Amino acid sequence: MNRVTSVVSALAAAAFVGLVPTAAAQQRPDFSGEWTLATAAPAQGEAARGGAGAARGGAAPGGRGLRIGDMGSGWGSPITIVQDANRLTLQYAFFVPGDLQPPLKFVYALDGSETRNTVPMGRGIQAQGSKAVWSGNTLVITTLHRYAHPVTGDSATAEIQQALGLISPTSLVVEATRIGVLGGPTTTTRTVYTKR
Question: Which of 37, 60, 135, 157 is the most core-located residue (most Cβ within 10 A)?
Answer without folding.
Answer: 37
